[in-house]
Write a structure and sequence with these properties.
Low-confidence stretches of chain A: 197-203
Oligomer: homodimer
Distance between the termini of chain A: 42 Å
Order of helices and strands of chain A: HEEEHEHEHHEEEHEEHEHHHEEEHEEH
Largest sheet of chain A: 7 strands, mixed
Mean pLDDT of chain A: 91
Strand order of the largest sheet of chain A: 9-16-11-15-12-13-14
Number of helices of chain A: 12
Strand content of chain A: 15-25%
Largest interface: A-B, 77 and 77 residues
Shape of chain A: globular
Helix content of chain A: 25-40%
Chain lengths: ~425, ~425
Amino acid sequence: MSGFKNQREYFRHLRGLGPLPEGFRAGTTSFTFMPAERPSEEPYRMDLSAVVLDEPTDVFAGAFTRNAVPGAPILIARERIGKPRMQGVLINNRISNVAASGGRATAERLAAEAGRLLGIDGSLLFPSSTGIIGWALPETEMTAALPDLARNLGGDPRRDGLPLDIARAIMTTDSFPKIRVRSIGAGRIMAIAKGAGMIEPNMATMLVFILTDLDIPRDVLREVLVQSLDGGFNAISVDGDQSTSDMVLAFSSRRFPVELGDFRREFIGLCRDLSLDIVRNGEGTGHVMEISVSGDADADFLRMIGRAVGNSPLVKTAVYGNDPNVGRILSAVGDCAGNAGRSIDSRRLTISIGGHRVFADGVFTISRETEEILAGYLAEQSQNPRISGYPQNDNLVKIAIDLGGEGGKAERIYASDLGHEYVSENADYRT
Amino acid sequence: MSGFKNQREYFRHLRGLGPLPEGFRAGTTSFTFMPAERPSEEPYRMDLSAVVLDEPTDVFAGAFTRNAVPGAPILIARERIGKPRMQGVLINNRISNVAASGGRATAERLAAEAGRLLGIDGSLLFPSSTGIIGWALPETEMTAALPDLARNLGGDPRRDGLPLDIARAIMTTDSFPKIRVRSIGAGRIMAIAKGAGMIEPNMATMLVFILTDLDIPRDVLREVLVQSLDGGFNAISVDGDQSTSDMVLAFSSRRFPVELGDFRREFIGLCRDLSLDIVRNGEGTGHVMEISVSGDADADFLRMIGRAVGNSPLVKTAVYGNDPNVGRILSAVGDCAGNAGRSIDSRRLTISIGGHRVFADGVFTISRETEEILAGYLAEQSQNPRISGYPQNDNLVKIAIDLGGEGGKAERIYASDLGHEYVSENADYRT
């Protein structure tokens, strides 16, 4: 399945996930601690999780934030991604281990100790962290929690609820757990994500862990992961910010044969579905926009235009208010192109909203009647942003922009709107 | 004067403007019309204004939006800026004449008719429009209003209230009139602006008209105008959007001699002051940030970093909430540099807020105590965004970023915060 029309379908999807792919084990634990940086406050809760393969694998891949001041886990992962084999990941939420003194050594010690308790080489684990920037990991408390984590990893690895437990344990301000799964023959691809929740001095960090028991070569997995990014995890935008900790990791336990074409298609489709779950999860998201841009041979330029429209605060607030505001879309397109030193022939440019043509031949083609129809269309695509928790539908506000030149296929960007709930979530935490 | 500590000082500034510089006349009128695009609504009000020189001048200059789908007035102005002489500008608010059928011919006919009534060549007038995108100018009603405008231009050109009348007549959703003036010897430079008000299908259009009776050569005026942009009108950001209609025009009536160095210094200072007025005027602005970036030889890169911080919705909402959120600033810096393919040595990077060092040597240097001091600092710099109208102070939230490399002077960007009032202003117009 790729979509869901209502919450009931989303719940059915979560209930029908099945166990982890074969050859993987996972576990989670939680504890509270008093952060040194905020001594007078209530205790903080941290979840600690691990996903490991039964044996080390040479089939693993990763993609990491391009942020120029990345966190310690990213610095370690960039090194370990070049190793011949890896065996899993150790994950914590609450503190991201970015810009904290000695953060790198702490992460390495925790992975070593987790490995010792699990009977595997700790340098074969990727550390992965999300949460507050600038604070130190509570190493003492985390170390004390590792034996419990190791015990939980010793439970039944085929338990149906295990994937959902992991998805819940890596959440920070996420409003619902995000997992997608696809089957090919006897094997499966399962992807677990957190992302797009923003609160406290925290980032919209995206963590994605993709587990498969399908046997593909290492270079195929690495190639397919890169291919999946443009239409998937790199095509989404909530704030326009790329966090210091974004990380996508994929592992194969190599249990079942698969046609490479099938694997590629299902892997890319799964990543796109999960990307949409992440955008929909943005705190206070009322609408998800699909901005499709065509009519130029330069795919990078098409994506840049889509991103400019999706990141424009004026477009985002208009969509939030169910306002089919053609002027703001037009201006964002022209602003982006102008800044990039590219000209646009406005007589060949067309813009549509929800399939209705609203701009052509250099002028608005929206009547008062169409405007009312489109305001209704926008309202129909919305979720109530005041109802948090599981998504109410998988509707998209479709904005199509054709630049009018020669070009291949359309590029698509997915973006959230911007409303009062976003401001409250991101500004009001001290009140 | 360049600053004002409270509303009383701002009112004193407005009362002390004096008349237009010598050699200029101005007038304004207003009328209502029923827009064809929204037949069932209330009548709309439009203000129509003109500022003209007593004789055509060869000393004029202009800077225009780089938006790739500009409005008809911009297309006409880009041509007329190359003419040997010009004599003034005809300005309307309410409708921006962008992407409207036949918009260019309409603007040219209106300028021709205004010129005929004023006894000057209409092709020596720049048309200038701001307001709703996509609608046609109400040409019939505007033409009918031109005789009244011409009569008003026949009044006393030395009247003290005239500059303020023009500043008020070009406002759209601006919350206060914006004028700055500087004297050098017997002559003056006066600049009148609108901008940064956003509502309806309207853009944050900035219009600036700079009038001087100081006698400088044409090429000096053009050069100084370009020099003023980097630290002035190009250094400000409310939405990150550049509208389809942004326009800066400058004219000299060449009445009084001036040292070119004096002129340059006062002109650039005046443009910076007026730029800050425009940011402060953003609907719902609670804080104005001054983001100063140093430590790299590439000034464009420094400005790009400053803009990324000032445009980050996460930084903007944190500042709105008086939250000294170092993580979001750090992440915005790293995100921008990473996307530009530039590395940052985080051990040499420093960040300060309000003069307090909050990041150095790769780690946060903010204690719980400093955090409370800085939250207080942010609150002190704020205006109450719920009180519209004249600005309550000229305070700035000072964020200083040093990239740690070799570099010359700091580049400064000025940006507004983002809060509930911004969302209401931009999303709720249908309610």
